[in-house]
Amino acid sequence: MGIRFVLLVNKQGQTRLAQYYEHLPIDQRTALEGEIVRKCLIRTDQQCSFVEHRNYKVIYRRYASLFFLVGVDNEENELAILEFIHLLVETLDRYFGNVCELDIMIHLEKVHFIVEEMVVNGCIVETNKSNILMPIQLMEKAA
Amino acid sequence: MADLIINPFSSGTRLRDMIRSIRACKTAAEERAVVRKECAAIRAAISENDHDYRHRNLAKLMFIHMLGYPTHFGQMECLKAIASAGFPEKRIGYLGLMLLLDERQEVLMLVTNSLKQDLNHSNQYIVGIALCALGNICSAEMARDLAPEVERLFQSRDPNIRKKAALCSVRIIKKVPDLAENFMSPAAVLLKEKHHGALISGVQLCTELCKVSEEALDYLRKKRTEGVVKILKDVVNSPYQPEYDIAGITDPFLHIRLLRLLRVLGQGDADASDYMNDILAQVATKTETNKNAGNAILYECVETIMSIEDNSGLRVLAINILGRFLSNRDNNIRYVALNMLMRAIAVDAQAVQRHRATILECVKDSDASIRKRALELVYLLVNDSNVKPLTKELIDYLEVSDQDFKGDLSAKICSIVEKFSLEKIWYIDQMLKVLSEAGNFVKDDVWHALIVVISNASDLHGYTVRSLYRAFQTSGEQESLVRVTVWCIGEYGEMLVNNMGMLDKEEPITVTESDAVDVLETAIKRHTSDITTRAMTLVALLKLSSRFPSCSQRVNDIIVEHKGNFVLELQQRSIEFNNIIERHQNIRSILLERMPVLDETTYNGRKAGSLHTTAQASTGSSISLPNGDVKPTAAPLVDLLDLSSDDTPAPSSSGVDPLQDLLGVDLTSTPSLSGSSKAPVDSLLDLLSIGTTSVQNDSSKLDVLSASNSSTQSANPLDMLSSLSSSLATPVSAPGSSAPMMDLLDGLSLIAPKTDTVTFTSPGLSETNGSVYPSITAFKSSSLKMEFSFSKQPGNPQTTLIHATFSNMSSNNYTNFIFQAAVPQFVQLHLDPASSNTLPANGKGSIKQNLKVTNTQQGQKNLAMRVRIAYKVNDKDMLEQGQINNFPPGL
């Protein structure tokens, strides 16, 4: 299992999406999110996109006011995860059309559906944007 | 519908409104209030079984959950949504299940049935979400129940189902490895997939199978290695595929998974490794390096090359790639290069050494992540030949590094210096540099170790103390530097002043006695000094009072200032030290001699293995003082005034550490410290007013016992000490030793239940003669009777077994009954445990206890014994004591 969690956080450090692939009690989650976000927010653009925290390696990427953070274990390929984050953003962009923080907040469940199509149990399952979005678009048509 | 709108609790607000009102909150308290209100509304809706807004309520709950509030009350609602017929309801229900559920098995059990139905559903999308949910949350039990369904779904016509079934199986075999064999053939079939999603999932399933099952690994290695190599070849050489293209490379994710599977297959198998050489070489040479995606593949490829069986050509290629990475300007690439080099060092240390200069530069990078990786790597690179330049580089960098990096950096430097200490002077020099730069960051054991080394380097004492003096002038704010300086000035102060033991490379300095005292005064008055530093300084001051008689008055003044200190330990020490200076001139110089050389092996052993000491430390009081023994790690270093300057090595397993007592005054009276074996002896001491006792095989216990006695009996332990000093085994005998103490020594030996035999001298007990052994009533008070009967062990005439029987004639039960006995020195006594510690009333029962006495002067002297019996009546402590002189003669 590579990916342990996917987090979306804004510049103020507020969580906008949190998907964990291992069980953590809620108070530990909030503590972990707080610590990681504090570590990532102080870093500059020139510094590398990897931060080690506890036993996680956090790979993060910033898009405008949103930080995408992915926590992985030690065996994961950091550069590939960086590419995965970009793929996730492109997919969200295609679905929402220039995605912004508010889109993600209001359509939280849809973002979850998208992430779910891409990652199952911490493994990347699909990287084709059309394949990822098809079930969600179908569901919308039906509704 | 109409009544829903009227009902104030029925989810009136939309999700959007809730988010808006949460975002409008200015404080956390406001946010909590909004969330509380929403939660109340959702609970109400749940209890009314409101279907219409279930979807919306679950979406709200997810948002609330994401903010970090408890949402357990929504779990059942998720299950209901899953059980409903509509796809959107099911969709949100499964999502809620994955997000909101904790690992409470009973709720999970409830969902198994719904999952089973959905896995068999005719709608592929419903099957898809069920598989996805199962893949994310399944427990071992669910895995067993649902594995057949998942297995069947590998046959599905829809590749989207097959890929999810594969990943679901990854979870299943992780939870229940026994199921692995069921998934072997479906997994192998998946490797023939054309659909990338199904293929990547199949590859991941195969990798996981290899990890959980030897059999699967063997099968895949033998039969499928070629197949996997071919897939990789196809992917590498495939024409442009827009849907999977990332920066001109077709599906880098698939590349990476395939390389990872090859790694598992090739590891430890030369044939399989051979198969993949060509394709690995191709990937390593042909992959684009100007895009992140390409580098990700290269990175994975290098790791595979490093892990599979040796092929020197490929390894050179891999190391070269890492070299290129390392000089890349992109920090991400440099980070992964450092990460990889750590693993490469095990394979080819020489090749990694070539990049040493670059790696060292990375330690100085502005990026904390890179620094950390580089530092770990440098640590692994150090060897005997490069330790000096590397240490110099690191120490130089310590001066300019970030505050928050100094802790890590100095710890690593100290560890390198300790591991490779070539000669003592180099070690001391490097440590002084580290302490001057980062003395506030180093751990205690670092400076403890330094003091042990200094103490052992007798030819460097002068050099060290002078270097420390200089360092203190410039870096007086570094706590641990101050401590070491203070300790050394206390010990070797005169060498500082008279420039003794001058080394060639040293520049002479002029330090007066009062300059040395200045240092100590600064140290003790520095507002940042903690108690440890202050206490150490007090001891150092005391020592200087004897080394520098001219400053004695000034030292005394400084000590007197601390007589009113709020910290009890400092206060007590100040008073004691003041007493030594003012009243005990005659013994001061002996008392304040330089402490014996600290035993390195003892210290290292202690450092290495002593769980014992750490456990003890945690029970100690929060105030750790160097001259108490509350803090065991500090203890060997701070026994500054050890009176009995005998150089006998510490008894290895003794409960009492001879080094722990400062001034021979052991703090055994503090409850946390009194060892169980000492306590009963202690209590007997006052019973029998005995001053000295010697414990067999452990002469060092001598001063502990006497000291604990003095600390319980005397307000001024020093009076006791002075009088004791002649009786101690010191090579120097103090003048004016004495009688008052000797009077106390009435020479009885003591023994308490469950302690080892204790012997001591006692002349002058009356003798009687005789040869029969009738039972006696050894002790009788108004309500308590103790009877002794005797038997002899055959072949051992000196030893007598005494069977003691206690009975209670009063009308109250006695509890906490303890019997203690003491015998003269020529007798050895051993007490067995008593049969009980409760003695019933009215003689309705008894306590039996066996004693074994060995009379070494049988026939010349008669047995005698003093006894003490303690017990409780109605929770009131009672004590009875007496002497037994009516032993049958001849025992």
TrEMBL record, chain A:
BP GO terms, sorted: intracellular protein transport
One GO term describing the cellular component: endomembrane system
Record's subcellular location: Endomembrane system
Gene3D superfamilies: 3.30.450.60
Sorted UniProt keywords: Membrane, Protein transport, Transport
Superkingdom per UniProt: Eukaryota
Primary location class: membrane
Chain ranges of the AP complex mu/sigma subunit domain: 3-142
InterPro entries associated with the record: AP_complex_ssu, AP_mu_sigma_su, Longin-like_dom_sf
Family matches, as CDD domains: AP4_sigma
Family, similarity comment: Belongs to the adaptor complexes small subunit family.
PANTHER family reported for this sequence: ADAPTOR COMPLEXES SMALL SUBUNIT FAMILY (PTHR11753)
Protein name (record): AP complex subunit sigma
TrEMBL record, chain B:
Membrane disposition: Peripheral membrane protein
Compositional bias ranges of the Low complexity kind: 642-654
Keywords: Cytoplasmic vesicle, Golgi apparatus, Membrane, Protein transport, Transport
Residue ranges with Polar residues bias: 611-625
GO cellular component terms, semicolon-separated: AP-1 adaptor complex
Stretches assigned to the GAE domain: 771-888
Residue ranges, annotated region (Disordered): 609-629, 642-661
Compartment(s): Cytoplasmic vesicle, Clathrin-coated vesicle membrane; Golgi apparatus
InterPro entries named among the record's database cross-references: Adaptor_Complx_Large_Subunit, AP1_complex_gsu, ARM-like, ARM-type_fold, Clathrin/coatomer_adapt-like_N, Clathrin_a/b/g-adaptin_app_Ig, Clathrin_app_Ig-like_sf, GAE_dom
GO BP terms: intracellular protein transport; vesicle-mediated transport
Similarity field: Belongs to the adaptor complexes large subunit family.
Stated role: Subunit of clathrin-associated adaptor protein complex 1 that plays a role in protein sorting at the trans-Golgi network and early endosomes (TGN/EE). The AP complexes mediate both the recruitment of clathrin to membranes and the recognition of sorting signals within the cytosolic tails of transmembrane cargo molecules.
Annotated protein name in UniProt: AP-1 complex subunit gamma
